[in-house]
Amino acid sequence: MAKTGGIAADRLKQIVARIERLEEDKKAVADDIKEVYAEAKGAGFDTKILRQVIRLRKLDGAEYQEQEALLELYLQAIGLTHQNAA
Amino acid sequence: MAKTGGIAADRLKQIVARIERLEEDKKAVADDIKEVYAEAKGAGFDTKILRQVIRLRKLDGAEYQEQEALLELYLQAIGLTHQNAA
Amino acid sequence: MAKTGGIAADRLKQIVARIERLEEDKKAVADDIKEVYAEAKGAGFDTKILRQVIRLRKLDGAEYQEQEALLELYLQAIGLTHQNAA
Amino acid sequence: MAKTGGIAADRLKQIVARIERLEEDKKAVADDIKEVYAEAKGAGFDTKILRQVIRLRKLDGAEYQEQEALLELYLQAIGLTHQNAA
DNA sequence: AACGTTGAAATAGTTC
DNA sequence: GAACTATTTCAACGTT
Lengths: 86, 86, 86, 86
Known about the structure:
The structure is a homotetramer.
Chain A: E1 3-4, E2 7-8, H1 9-42, H2 47-79
Antiparallel strand pairs in A: 1-2
Chain B binds a DNA duplex through residues 30, 47-48, 51, 55.
């Protein structure tokens, strides 16, 4: 039985291998992204601004949802909809 | 001269002591915050909502600035104000 | 009813104010800690190692040794001992 | 002039689209990794130690030993050796 | 009391 | 090499 000091060694090896494989994939994608930025830079675009655009576009949807949630919460807080214990 | 293997031991000890002192302070404040939440809960408020309110109030100012930056960036991107190399 | 709501709302505002005040304090202390690290760096100390020192001092020995042992076990299981990690 | 801007704007849109596509891929892989860790945890492995194993395998021995030596030095300087951290 | 979720801290990487 | 940003790791909290 493939145990080393109570550890299922084979299982552990599999897990480690899978993670390392996936991390390689991830690195490959990250490198692709870098390439695109480099290419963009070569085409005369400002990569710093480009990164900000990407970041803000990501935030956009999230922010909208946050605002919605905020409104909801304020309504509850002011109207004491839920936590009215007084 | 107070050196151990090339390290200024006294200086290091001082630094460690200062950091540990400050971390105690920080923990004390964190505990105070917990207390307030516990008290609020005792008064019938929903701590989850309370935490969200705090978080969103914090975000508020930041988000406004992000939006401003986004507008600025889009203006640059569409008008190609800076990176117009074509 | 509006009265009750009003009282609870006042209470809520107080709570929020207290928490936000405390979080400012906490941030101030956190900033102080950062400053000490920056100062230490300026004096030639390696901040990463310094953080490790602080962390080790916080851990009690039992916990530390437990983790070390478990790590060793895992490394052995995958056929990579701590010593020959090179 | 409007034309040039238009062409560059199209190019910019393409770039942004490509990056966002790649970032989705990256996120998907990152999620896969998380899943593996979750699965490992379900199988009884300590994920924190597991992460350490992965990290150690990535490090080359020289770097690792350097850091260990420096840590030892600091601990000695403040009168706390690695062994008697208890 | 373990689990997942979320927020803070720390580390690594990039740019200037 | 110093500052800023992004990613990763760690710890706290609520939940079941």
